[in-house]
Design goal:
binds zinc ion; binds adenosine monophosphate; alpha/beta
């Protein structure tokens, strides 16, 4: 089986072959920590997580690097607008570092709830300004920069491959189709490597540099940190599709101008947007949804993960609460099914045993779906096929489901334990008797008695769930 990925660089499906056998260098652009991540941003990180988990399941040692942008990101990616961090700090009456610290913690709180694995390396821009300056010096020494109006710019006309990722045609590039915002730029596509005399007099964080006291442009941090942790050429770089035209295009330009090696990154993976009825969800547009909004509305973070896995990462997805309800119901059926299988199997299957027969065929089909550019909707369908197939022995089905969950991360093993740990037969009989008694009490509208039984069971760590098919119970 070979993993194929859609490479934005070249716009085609390609078999994944790492630069170094058995190892994968993976860089995913991290959050700008001036506000909470919205659920669209979280789609990007669930996509990265699914890819990293898939690669690890294929036996690769993956070094996953994620940056934290805590300096230099303007509200317009093209060096225009306000500084996101400074503006947020001013609005909230806090320092930039306090804001960064608060929203970084909030971000990892969200990713943890979504079962997104912590990257191997998490690196903050403010802690890597030395590396950025060193990289800019190399770019300058290679003749790709000019100083103008106090800032240091990247001159895109010096790099013949500029815009390859974004499919910019060379004529358009020269003609300068982008709207001119910064009069200091020779070409509208040029971008800032280092700001000194900037429009932000109140810039909170500044550093000394060969070009004067100032701060880095946004794009340089990703080049500097990925090269530091993954080397001058590495395997995969990921992010949302909004980054193709400017941010990633400029990251490539800087990195290749510094190292003079091409290609800097072998595979570029971009997720499509999550949209709302109003259009693309974005922080600057306001009114965006966070994971906490969904939790406050009574959903589980994994309902949202399930919702995302139900669509291919390269399809646009429209968020709605109706669709999220669908995901919640499906996940509930899934966990119920898993618990029933575990209960029937009389415990959890031993780990390490070979998965054989029909269960193995489902697992193979599951892996094949992921091999085809991470087709998670089909992978989920294979999981469902496995669980519904009465010809597959329960223990085999569970074992195969656990293997699938190494990528899906829907806590299938936890649910199975809930089913398996229901207790000894006598205790189960006693609980069932109490349930029957409660049913009788409800029939005669003795709700006080029904509630008493519910509370007695709760004190013993047993939770009752009233559903359309009657009452079920589980341990807390
Ligand atoms: P930011 O914190 O704005 O730099 O964005 C973090 C990640 O989320 C980037 O990879 C973006 O491309 C991605 N992103 C932003 N908006 C959306 C959206 N509505 N749907 C999916 N991904 C998004
Ligand atoms: Zn980046």
């Amino acid at each position: 089986m070979a993993l194929t990925l859609y490479n934005t660089l070249g716009r085609k499906l390609q078999v994944f072959e790492p630069i170094r056998s058995g190892e994968v260098g993976f860089y995913g652009c991290g959050p700008t920590v001036y506000n909470y991540a919205h659920i669209g941003n979280l789609r990007a990180y669930v996509t990265h997580d699914t890819l990293v988990r898939t690669l690890r399941e294929r036996g690769y040692t993956v070094t996953h690097v994620m940056n934290i942008t805590d300096v230099g990101h303007l509200s317009g990616d093209n060096d225009d607008g306000d500084d996101k961090m400074v503006k947020s700090a001013e609005e909230r009456g806090k320092s930039v570092l306090e804001i960064a610290d608060f929203y970084t913690k909030a971000f990892f709180n969200d990713t943890e709830r979504l079962n997104i694995l912590r990257p191997t390396v998490v690196c903050k821009a403010t802690e890597h300004v030395g590396e950025m300056i060193a990289l800019i010096k190399r770019i300058e020494a290679n003749g790709f920069t000019y100083q103008s109006g106090g800032n240091l710019y990247f001159d895109i006309t010096k790099l013949s491959a500029y815009g390859e990722l974004a499919l910019l045609n060379p004529d358009e590039r020269k003609a300068g189709a982008r709207i001119e915002i910064d009069a200091n730029k020779r070409n509208p596509y040029d971008f800032v490597l280092w700001f000194t005399r900037s429009k932000f007099e109140n810039q909170a964080l500044v550093w000394d540099s060969p070009w004067g006291r100032g701060y880095p442009g946004w794009h340089i941090e990703c080049s500097a940190m990925s090269i530091k942790y993954l080397g001058e050429q590495f395997d995969i770089h990921a992010g949302g599709i909004d980054h193709i035209t400017i941010h990633h295009t400029n990251e490539i330009a800087q990195s290749e101008a510094a190292t003079l090696k091409h290609p800097w990154v072998k595979y570029w993976v971009h997720n499509e947007f999550l949209i709302q009825d109003k259009g693309k969800m974005s922080k600057s547009a306001g009114g965006f949804l966070t994971l906490q909004t969904l939790l406050d509305a009574g959903y589980d973070a994994l309902d949202y993960r399930y919702f995302l896995l139900g669509a291919h990462y390269r399809s646009q997805v429209q968020f709605s609460y109706e669709a999220l309800d669908g995901a919640r119901n499906a996940r509930k059926s899934l966990t119920d099914r898993i618990r029933v299988l575990a209960e029937k199997a009389g415990g959890l299957p031993e780990g390490g045993a070979e998965i054989g027969g029909k269960a193995a065929a489902y697992l193979e089909a599951f892996n094949k779906a992921l091999d085809e550019d991470l087709n998670t909707p089909r992978a989920l369908a294979e999981l469902w096929g496995l669980l519904r197939d009465s010809a597959v022995p329960g223990a085999d089905a569970l074992r195969a489901a656990f293997a699938m969950d190494a990528v899906l991360a829907l806590t299938i093993a936890v649910e199975a334990r809930r089913g398996a740990d229901k207790g000894n037969p006598e205790e189960i009989a006693e609980i069932e008797a109490l349930l029957a008694e409660r049913g009788e009490a409800k029939k005669v509208k003795d709700f006080a008695a029904a509630d008493r039984i519910r509370n007695t069971l709760k004190e013993r760590g047993i939770l009752l769930e009233d559903g359309p098919k009657g009452v079920t119970w589980r341990r807390l």
